[in-house]
Automatic annotation (TrEMBL):
SUPFAM superfamilies: alpha/beta-Hydrolases. Residues 38-144 form the AB hydrolase-1 domain. InterPro entries: AB_hydrolase_1, AB_hydrolase_fold, AB_hydrolase_sf. This is Pimeloyl-ACP methyl ester carboxylesterase. The lineage of its organism: Bacteria, Bacillati, Actinomycetota, Actinomycetes, Propionibacteriales. It comes from Nocardioides marmoribigeumensis. It comes from the Bacteria.
Length: 301
Protein backbone atom coordinates (compact mmCIF):
# COMPACT_ATOMS: atom_id res chain seq x y z
CA UNK A 1 0.00 0.00 0.00
CA UNK A 2 1.28 3.43 -0.93
CA UNK A 3 0.54 6.57 1.09
CA UNK A 4 3.53 8.58 -0.08
CA UNK A 5 2.51 12.23 -0.57
CA UNK A 6 4.45 12.51 -3.83
CA UNK A 7 7.46 14.55 -4.88
CA UNK A 8 8.18 17.92 -3.34
CA UNK A 9 6.92 20.79 -5.51
CA UNK A 10 5.99 24.38 -4.88
CA UNK A 11 2.42 24.73 -3.54
CA UNK A 12 0.31 27.82 -3.08
CA UNK A 13 -3.23 28.18 -1.75
CA UNK A 14 -5.39 30.80 -3.45
CA UNK A 15 -8.98 31.96 -3.60
CA UNK A 16 -11.38 33.59 -6.02
CA UNK A 17 -14.97 34.78 -5.86
CA UNK A 18 -18.10 34.16 -7.86
CA UNK A 19 -20.47 36.85 -6.66
CA UNK A 20 -20.30 36.70 -2.88
CA UNK A 21 -19.17 33.09 -2.80
CA UNK A 22 -15.54 32.29 -2.06
CA UNK A 23 -13.80 29.29 -3.63
CA UNK A 24 -10.39 27.97 -2.63
CA UNK A 25 -7.77 26.19 -4.71
CA UNK A 26 -4.19 24.95 -4.55
CA UNK A 27 -1.55 25.47 -7.24
CA UNK A 28 1.20 22.90 -7.64
CA UNK A 29 4.32 23.90 -9.55
CA UNK A 30 4.74 27.37 -10.94
CA UNK A 31 4.23 29.29 -14.13
CA UNK A 32 8.00 29.35 -14.54
CA UNK A 33 8.19 25.56 -14.39
CA UNK A 34 4.85 24.49 -15.84
CA UNK A 35 4.41 27.42 -18.15
CA UNK A 36 1.09 27.23 -19.92
CA UNK A 37 0.72 23.47 -19.38
CA UNK A 38 -2.27 23.85 -17.07
CA UNK A 39 -4.08 20.90 -15.51
CA UNK A 40 -7.23 21.34 -13.37
CA UNK A 41 -8.27 18.41 -11.16
CA UNK A 42 -11.76 18.27 -9.63
CA UNK A 43 -12.73 16.13 -6.63
CA UNK A 44 -15.57 13.64 -6.18
CA UNK A 45 -18.93 14.56 -4.70
CA UNK A 46 -18.69 15.84 -1.10
CA UNK A 47 -14.93 15.18 -1.11
CA UNK A 48 -12.16 17.78 -0.63
CA UNK A 49 -9.69 18.84 -3.31
CA UNK A 50 -6.89 17.27 -1.28
CA UNK A 51 -7.90 13.88 -2.68
CA UNK A 52 -5.92 14.79 -5.81
CA UNK A 53 -2.79 16.07 -4.01
CA UNK A 54 -0.60 13.01 -4.82
CA UNK A 55 -1.47 13.07 -8.53
CA UNK A 56 -1.10 16.86 -8.66
CA UNK A 57 2.40 16.69 -7.18
CA UNK A 58 3.54 14.06 -9.67
CA UNK A 59 2.10 15.99 -12.62
CA UNK A 60 3.72 19.20 -11.36
CA UNK A 61 7.05 17.44 -10.96
CA UNK A 62 6.78 16.49 -14.64
CA UNK A 63 6.57 20.13 -15.69
CA UNK A 64 2.85 20.90 -15.49
CA UNK A 65 1.10 23.74 -13.70
CA UNK A 66 -1.57 21.88 -11.73
CA UNK A 67 -4.54 23.28 -9.83
CA UNK A 68 -6.94 21.48 -7.53
CA UNK A 69 -10.13 23.29 -6.59
CA UNK A 70 -12.87 22.93 -4.00
CA UNK A 71 -16.11 23.53 -5.87
CA UNK A 72 -18.87 25.39 -4.08
CA UNK A 73 -20.16 23.34 -1.16
CA UNK A 74 -16.97 21.31 -0.85
CA UNK A 75 -13.79 21.40 1.19
CA UNK A 76 -12.75 24.90 2.24
CA UNK A 77 -14.92 26.76 -0.23
CA UNK A 78 -18.16 28.46 0.83
CA UNK A 79 -21.16 26.21 1.40
CA UNK A 80 -24.45 27.94 0.63
CA UNK A 81 -27.70 26.23 1.61
CA UNK A 82 -29.71 26.97 -1.53
CA UNK A 83 -30.02 23.93 -3.84
CA UNK A 84 -30.19 26.31 -6.82
CA UNK A 85 -26.50 27.05 -6.27
CA UNK A 86 -25.57 23.45 -7.10
CA UNK A 87 -25.61 21.87 -10.54
CA UNK A 88 -23.15 20.33 -12.98
CA UNK A 89 -23.43 23.36 -15.23
CA UNK A 90 -22.83 25.71 -12.28
CA UNK A 91 -19.75 23.69 -11.33
CA UNK A 92 -18.50 23.94 -14.92
CA UNK A 93 -18.94 27.70 -14.77
CA UNK A 94 -16.85 27.74 -11.59
CA UNK A 95 -14.01 25.91 -13.35
CA UNK A 96 -14.12 28.37 -16.25
CA UNK A 97 -14.09 31.24 -13.74
CA UNK A 98 -11.03 29.63 -12.13
CA UNK A 99 -9.26 29.52 -15.51
CA UNK A 100 -10.10 33.20 -15.99
CA UNK A 101 -8.78 34.00 -12.52
CA UNK A 102 -5.54 32.13 -13.20
CA UNK A 103 -5.10 33.63 -16.66
CA UNK A 104 -5.08 30.13 -18.16
CA UNK A 105 -6.23 30.13 -21.77
CA UNK A 106 -6.61 26.34 -21.92
CA UNK A 107 -6.16 23.42 -19.55
CA UNK A 108 -6.45 19.68 -19.29
CA UNK A 109 -9.58 19.38 -17.15
CA UNK A 110 -11.20 16.53 -15.29
CA UNK A 111 -11.19 14.49 -12.15
CA UNK A 112 -12.97 11.70 -10.33
CA UNK A 113 -16.70 10.87 -10.42
CA UNK A 114 -18.29 14.31 -10.00
CA UNK A 115 -15.04 15.79 -11.27
CA UNK A 116 -15.19 13.70 -14.44
CA UNK A 117 -18.75 14.83 -15.15
CA UNK A 118 -17.77 18.44 -14.50
CA UNK A 119 -14.92 18.03 -16.98
CA UNK A 120 -17.42 16.95 -19.64
CA UNK A 121 -19.59 19.95 -18.83
CA UNK A 122 -16.62 22.32 -19.14
CA UNK A 123 -15.85 20.83 -22.56
CA UNK A 124 -19.41 21.62 -23.66
CA UNK A 125 -19.60 25.05 -22.02
CA UNK A 126 -16.20 26.33 -23.16
CA UNK A 127 -14.68 23.90 -25.69
CA UNK A 128 -11.89 26.28 -26.64
CA UNK A 129 -10.67 26.32 -23.02
CA UNK A 130 -10.19 22.54 -22.83
CA UNK A 131 -6.93 21.02 -24.05
CA UNK A 132 -7.83 17.51 -22.96
CA UNK A 133 -10.06 15.56 -20.56
CA UNK A 134 -9.12 13.31 -17.63
CA UNK A 135 -12.19 11.24 -16.75
CA UNK A 136 -12.00 8.77 -13.89
CA UNK A 137 -15.21 6.81 -13.25
CA UNK A 138 -17.78 9.20 -14.78
CA UNK A 139 -21.36 8.69 -13.62
CA UNK A 140 -23.65 8.44 -16.65
CA UNK A 141 -26.76 6.66 -17.92
CA UNK A 142 -26.07 3.21 -16.50
CA UNK A 143 -25.56 4.42 -12.92
CA UNK A 144 -28.77 6.40 -12.38
CA UNK A 145 -30.49 3.80 -10.19
CA UNK A 146 -27.38 3.11 -8.10
CA UNK A 147 -26.82 6.85 -7.65
CA UNK A 148 -30.36 7.28 -6.37
CA UNK A 149 -29.91 4.42 -3.89
CA UNK A 150 -26.58 5.87 -2.70
CA UNK A 151 -27.47 9.54 -2.33
CA UNK A 152 -31.18 9.52 -1.47
CA UNK A 153 -30.41 8.31 2.09
CA UNK A 154 -27.85 11.10 2.48
CA UNK A 155 -30.41 13.69 1.38
CA UNK A 156 -33.07 12.21 3.68
CA UNK A 157 -30.69 12.11 6.65
CA UNK A 158 -29.45 15.66 6.12
CA UNK A 159 -33.02 16.99 5.84
CA UNK A 160 -34.84 14.99 8.48
CA UNK A 161 -32.11 13.78 10.86
CA UNK A 162 -29.47 16.54 10.66
CA UNK A 163 -28.14 15.65 14.09
CA UNK A 164 -26.65 12.50 12.54
CA UNK A 165 -24.59 14.54 10.06
CA UNK A 166 -23.57 16.94 12.82
CA UNK A 167 -22.53 14.08 15.11
CA UNK A 168 -20.47 12.37 12.41
CA UNK A 169 -18.76 15.66 11.55
CA UNK A 170 -17.97 16.39 15.19
CA UNK A 171 -16.54 12.89 15.61
CA UNK A 172 -14.35 13.28 12.52
CA UNK A 173 -12.87 16.49 13.91
CA UNK A 174 -11.78 14.68 17.08
CA UNK A 175 -9.35 12.51 15.13
CA UNK A 176 -5.88 14.12 14.95
CA UNK A 177 -5.06 14.60 11.30
CA UNK A 178 -1.32 14.32 11.91
CA UNK A 179 -1.70 10.63 12.74
CA UNK A 180 -3.74 9.80 9.64
CA UNK A 181 -2.54 8.73 6.20
CA UNK A 182 -3.33 10.89 3.20
CA UNK A 183 -6.49 8.94 2.39
CA UNK A 184 -7.40 8.80 6.06
CA UNK A 185 -7.38 12.62 6.10
CA UNK A 186 -9.45 12.72 2.91
CA UNK A 187 -12.07 10.45 4.49
CA UNK A 188 -12.14 12.49 7.68
CA UNK A 189 -12.53 15.74 5.74
CA UNK A 190 -15.31 14.19 3.64
CA UNK A 191 -17.17 13.25 6.81
CA UNK A 192 -16.89 16.83 8.10
CA UNK A 193 -20.16 18.05 6.61
CA UNK A 194 -22.87 20.50 7.66
CA UNK A 195 -26.45 19.27 7.19
CA UNK A 196 -27.85 22.31 5.38
CA UNK A 197 -25.18 22.72 2.69
CA UNK A 198 -24.85 18.95 2.29
CA UNK A 199 -28.57 18.56 1.69
CA UNK A 200 -28.54 21.48 -0.74
CA UNK A 201 -25.62 20.06 -2.72
CA UNK A 202 -27.12 16.58 -2.98
CA UNK A 203 -30.57 18.02 -3.80
CA UNK A 204 -29.21 20.28 -6.52
CA UNK A 205 -27.31 17.46 -8.22
CA UNK A 206 -29.98 14.84 -7.55
CA UNK A 207 -32.66 16.70 -9.48
CA UNK A 208 -30.45 18.32 -12.11
CA UNK A 209 -28.59 17.25 -15.21
CA UNK A 210 -25.97 14.63 -14.39
CA UNK A 211 -23.88 15.07 -17.54
CA UNK A 212 -24.14 16.31 -21.12
CA UNK A 213 -26.42 13.99 -23.14
CA UNK A 214 -24.89 11.31 -25.34
CA UNK A 215 -25.60 13.19 -28.56
CA UNK A 216 -23.61 16.13 -27.20
CA UNK A 217 -20.78 13.99 -25.87
CA UNK A 218 -20.32 12.50 -29.33
CA UNK A 219 -19.52 15.96 -30.71
CA UNK A 220 -16.65 16.62 -28.30
CA UNK A 221 -13.34 16.57 -30.21
CA UNK A 222 -10.97 16.76 -27.26
CA UNK A 223 -8.38 14.07 -26.51
CA UNK A 224 -9.43 12.17 -23.40
CA UNK A 225 -8.13 9.55 -21.00
CA UNK A 226 -10.99 7.56 -19.45
CA UNK A 227 -10.42 5.31 -16.43
CA UNK A 228 -13.05 2.75 -15.44
CA UNK A 229 -13.38 0.45 -12.44
CA UNK A 230 -14.91 -3.04 -12.49
CA UNK A 231 -17.10 -4.03 -9.58
CA UNK A 232 -18.12 -0.48 -8.58
CA UNK A 233 -21.95 -0.32 -8.35
CA UNK A 234 -22.13 3.48 -8.67
CA UNK A 235 -19.24 4.25 -11.03
CA UNK A 236 -19.96 1.48 -13.49
CA UNK A 237 -17.21 0.46 -15.86
CA UNK A 238 -19.95 0.36 -18.52
CA UNK A 239 -20.34 4.13 -18.19
CA UNK A 240 -16.61 4.71 -18.56
CA UNK A 241 -16.44 2.45 -21.60
CA UNK A 242 -19.49 4.13 -23.09
CA UNK A 243 -18.07 7.64 -22.86
CA UNK A 244 -14.72 6.39 -24.19
CA UNK A 245 -16.55 4.99 -27.22
CA UNK A 246 -18.53 8.20 -27.67
CA UNK A 247 -15.55 10.54 -27.60
CA UNK A 248 -13.71 10.59 -30.92
CA UNK A 249 -10.24 10.86 -29.38
CA UNK A 250 -10.48 8.86 -26.17
CA UNK A 251 -8.38 6.04 -24.73
CA UNK A 252 -9.84 3.72 -22.12
CA UNK A 253 -7.82 2.26 -19.24
CA UNK A 254 -9.34 -0.27 -16.86
CA UNK A 255 -8.26 -0.13 -13.23
CA UNK A 256 -8.12 -3.32 -11.21
CA UNK A 257 -10.61 -1.76 -8.76
CA UNK A 258 -11.64 1.58 -7.31
CA UNK A 259 -8.76 1.17 -4.84
CA UNK A 260 -5.94 0.91 -7.37
CA UNK A 261 -5.40 4.65 -7.81
CA UNK A 262 -5.77 5.13 -4.05
CA UNK A 263 -3.44 2.39 -2.80
CA UNK A 264 -1.24 1.39 -5.74
CA UNK A 265 -1.25 4.52 -7.93
CA UNK A 266 1.94 4.00 -9.94
CA UNK A 267 0.43 2.46 -13.10
CA UNK A 268 -2.51 4.83 -13.49
CA UNK A 269 -0.48 7.88 -12.50
CA UNK A 270 2.16 6.97 -15.12
CA UNK A 271 -0.57 6.65 -17.75
CA UNK A 272 -1.90 10.05 -16.76
CA UNK A 273 1.53 11.66 -16.95
CA UNK A 274 2.02 10.17 -20.42
CA UNK A 275 -1.40 11.39 -21.56
CA UNK A 276 -0.82 14.94 -20.33
CA UNK A 277 2.65 14.98 -21.92
CA UNK A 278 1.16 13.81 -25.20
CA UNK A 279 -1.59 16.42 -25.14
CA UNK A 280 0.77 19.31 -24.40
CA UNK A 281 3.68 17.88 -26.35
CA UNK A 282 1.77 18.44 -29.57
CA UNK A 283 2.03 22.19 -29.10
CA UNK A 284 -1.06 24.34 -28.91
CA UNK A 285 -3.49 21.85 -30.37
CA UNK A 286 -7.04 23.15 -30.42
CA UNK A 287 -10.33 21.25 -30.56
CA UNK A 288 -10.77 19.90 -34.05
CA UNK A 289 -7.05 19.27 -34.62
CA UNK A 290 -6.14 15.68 -35.46
CA UNK A 291 -2.59 15.51 -34.08
CA UNK A 292 -3.44 12.79 -31.59
CA UNK A 293 -4.32 9.32 -32.77
CA UNK A 294 -8.04 8.65 -32.63
CA UNK A 295 -8.31 5.38 -30.79
CA UNK A 296 -12.08 5.38 -30.23
CA UNK A 297 -12.15 3.85 -26.78
CA UNK A 298 -9.50 1.17 -27.31
CA UNK A 299 -8.35 -0.54 -24.12
CA UNK A 300 -4.69 0.15 -23.46
CA UNK A 301 -2.59 -2.75 -22.13
Amino acid sequence: MSSHPGPHVAERVGQFFIGDDRLEYTEFGSAGRGGDRWVVLVHGQLMPRSMHDPLARVLAAHGNHVVTVDLLGHGRSDRPEDPRDYSMTAFAEQVVALLDHLGAETAVVGGTSLGANVGLEVAVLAPDRVQGLLLEMPVLDNAVEAGILAFAPLLFTARFAPFVITLVAASSRLVPRRFATHWGRVVLDTLDQRPGPMAAAVHGLFFGRIAPPARTRRTLPHPALVVGHPGDPIHLAADARMVADELARASYVEASSILEWRLRPQRLTARTVDFVDEVWGRGTAQPGDTHLEEVGGAVLP
